[in-house]
Amino acid sequence: MEKLEIERLKKSLHYLKSKQRELKKHDENEIRSFESIIKYQKNYMVEHYKLLYYEPSIKQDIKNTEIFIGNVQKIIDLYP
Fold it and tell me: Mean of the pLDDT values across residues 56-68?
């Protein structure tokens, strides 16, 4: 993965983490919209950055945001 792609992936991961934090802070009425945003962001990241190439199990882990974030962080760490 190119350096520019890694930087963009880092920004996408940061955005995902921020939405995950916001999700934990809000009440039940607002959760659905945050869940939708998070789901879209994870799918976007998998497709746009071709994360399946770097971590084949990432598609299975997409349902669990914390595991997904960890897997993306591992991919980023491979490219210092």
Answer: 92
